[in-house]
Amino acid sequence: MAKYNTVSEEFLEELRAAIGAEHVRTDAATLDTYKTDEEKDERCFHLPDVVIAPADAQEIAAVVKLCNKYLVPLTVRGGGTGITDGAIAVCGGAVLLMERLNKIIELNKEGMYLVAQAGVRTIDIQKAANEQGFLYAGDPCSAESCQIGGNLATNAGGNKAVRYGVTRNQVYAVQIVTPTGEIVDLGAPLKKCSTGYCMEQLVIGSEGTLGIITQVTLKLQPLPPYRLDLLAVFTDPVQAMSVVPKIIKAGINPTSIEYMDNANVRTTSRFLEFSGAPHADEGIYVIVTVETFNEDELDMKMEQLDAICEECGAIDVLEADDRIWAMRRNCLESVSLISKVCTTDDVVVPVDEMSDMVKFIIATVRKYPFPLRINAHIGDGNLHIVLCKMDLSDEEWESNLRRFTQEVYTYAYAHGGRLAGEHGIGAKKREFLEEFTPAGELELMRKIKRAWDPNLILNPGKVFNA
User: Structure pTM?
Assistant: First the structure.
């Protein structure tokens, strides 16, 4: 880890001159506000020394140059919805807010793309596209509060990835401020390109360690006019998982296939005060969304889905209304009814390994003193494992959590998986990434980081030790 200087008054004065004194905050209340993201464990909190809110790429470039000049670490924060401590200033220094970069610049109907600043909320991009008859296919569960730049930085997945892919599949181009303070445009709105390295894809998913994303050019899709959401209720997790390959092989091409175990069904229905949740006492939910451009095609596919779910052992198949989707989107928030501190892991495995992975997790957690909840994007192999601290001491929690996590990651990697599907690594998984990533691959990452960021200014303490 590099050695950094403390924030000096001279550094602060130059910041104020660069972006305006009102956008450079050092008061205790502001610093306290930005000591964490969605992390609830107070032991992981870190107070920044200054919080900065620049207006555009030019001001961000000035901030980055000052951080290099004074050797002050810089942590970028989008909507603060991350759960791997990626927006926490673990090395102190400055936290940079993107909230003033909040404009949609262009929606090109003929080219089917949208240009926006990085601080625009994802839901506002979705709405702007929908209003013009298009779909922006990125759809993380935190869409109402997360920012599009943060989606790119973590390569967010979400509910529609099974059909449209993850965030990197929705991007034509990005503008970044480099770790040394240059403004660079990467990529272009092209259907294909083999002109040198694909630099925009390297930045996407780098979690703010290789550059600060300031502007994005996003692909838009035609908006299907017909849609139906189906809820299949199971009592056996293996039967629930078995629907996925049958749906894919049938050519149904679903937009979403989502999973909620019964613990999640019961907790979210309580959290949302939804007393009419179907089969809440025993049900495991599989939510399938199908969208088409032809009504007859939709009817045919829903008949196929109904037959597949019944064949796989569903005890009920019915239409899923908005309340069912609200339950799915509130799985993490609802855990607050159980425990103040919890952890949500986000292991990903090949789709054909999902059933065995779930069986392994359920069997393994029986050795540990915390309750388990599983929700998942089962159409793309991404499992969210939620564990609650309950009444454990800090030492008991840390010891048991580490041993359980070690077992899960070891199993996942032995079966072609990885330790993060969409949440990123942040600070929370850094040691595990270094442990499980092949040495040659990890060293390439380190070389890229050192070449791009010679002073290791951007988001230090995240992803891996540079």
Answer: 0.94
